[in-house]
Write a structure and sequence with these properties.
Layout (H helix, E strand, L loop, with lengths): L5 H47 L12 H18 L3 H12 L5 H16 L8 H5 L8
Helix pairs in contact: 1-2, 1-4, 3-4
Length: about 140
């Protein structure tokens, strides 16, 4: 007397393969969701750092090395995080090319576009809020 009949054997094989396939899909989609969540988190962090350290563009403001490094790190991360969006890349190139006198208005435009792509709502933030960052010179 055999332990399995032929039908039971094939049913067990199909069940085992279905279990392995389901586990593989769960891991695949879990890793994909984790990746997408991490990219979204990094995009939001980039927007926050651009906003937080934009005061280094204010003439005469004393800035720390850490503040400059964080601001420039956020700017340098834009191609990696937002390189898929042509509006963001065009605005970043424009920001790089404008004169020092126009940097403030250019960074506001860049922040708004990057925030929009990252899903950070700035609808209640006016241009005056962005033009006058808190710093040691003026509040």
């Amino acid at each position: 007397m055999s332990f399995f009949t032929t039908n039971e054997f094939w049913a067990a094989c199909i069940g085992a393969m279905a279990t392995i396939l389901a586990a593989w899909f769960a891991v695949f989609f879990g890793l994909r969701t984790l990746r997408d969540t991490e990219i979204k988190r990094l995009r939001i962090k980039c927007v926050i750092e651009l906003m937080a350290y934009r005061f280094i563009l204010v003439p005469g403001v004393t800035t720390s090395i850490e503040g400059k490094m964080s601001f420039f790190a956020a700017l340098n991360s834009i191609p990696g995080l937002f390189g898929h969006d042509p509006k963001v890349m065009l605005c970043l190139r424009d920001f790089r090319e404008v004169s020092s006198a126009e940097k403030n208005s250019s960074i506001m435009k860049l922040i708004r576009i990057v925030a929009d792509v990252a899903g950070v709502p700035l609808s209640a933030v006016s241009n005056i809020d962005l033009e006058r960052p808190f710093s040691d010179k003026r509040h």
